[in-house]
Amino acid sequence: MSDRDNLLVSGYSFGSVQDAETARAEGRKIEYFKEKTKGRSPANLLALYDKLLDEKVFKTPVGYEYLRQLQIQLQQEGISKELIRPIPLYISFSYNAGEEIEKAAVKQRIRQSKTQKDKSGRLKLSIYINILLAVLVAAMFVITLKSDNPNILNYKKTIVNQYAAWEQELTRRENEVRKKEQELQLDAEASDENMETTGQ
């Protein structure tokens, strides 16, 4: 096979072997899509067509030719022309150095705006996550403060309350003991007096 034959794919003569290989790969994809879409409804075909455009599956004339065939098939199957998107071409067919520089600048701005949108989406997500985490931390503090168990936030209050309760309990018991002691002393004095009176 000569070099010239390596550049021929589906009736197109490509300028490089790499472009020819890309076109061959697209030819295999086209055969796969044709096999999978046999007997499919027009709505399914339209969905496939839109997905192929969105994902920029085809980059060579071989792929564009298949997209054009899909357009014609969709129109024949009754899909409105307004629903069938045009095939976007991402290449220029005339060469003008000034235009190329301008187009490159436009493409760069488009890329930058897309990355800015991505960054703004990430920023929003980050803000939402931070707010959620702040709410969770605040909830943990509230739960900790309301808890009866001593912890680092309320240990002093809990310990003071515990000691106060113990002190009250001890005071109450001490008073009971003193009361019992007094009763015992009174009983002892009464029994001593009884002995003295009976002993006489």
Description:
There is one protein chain. The protein contains 6 helices and 2 strands; from the N terminus they run αββααααα. By secondary structure, it is mainly α. The protein has 3 domains: 3-91, no CATH class; 94-146; 150-200. Strands 1-2 form a two-stranded antiparallel ribbon. β1 (8-9) and β2 form a beta hairpin. The radius of gyration is 46 Å and the shape is rod-shaped.
What is the secondary structure topology, with strand pairs?
Elements: H1 3-6, E1 8-9, E2 12-13, H2 17-36, H3 42-54, H4 61-76, H5 97-146, H6 155-199
Antiparallel strand pairs: 1-2
Helix pairs in contact: 2-4, 3-4
Bin the helical content: over 70%
Percent range for β-strand residues? under 5%
Structural class: mainly alpha
Low-pLDDT sequence parts: none
Q: Mind describing the biggest β-sheet?
A: 2 strands, antiparallel
Descriptive keywords:
single chain; 200 residues; mainly alpha; 3 domains
Nutshell version of this structure?
The chain is 74% helix and 2% strand.
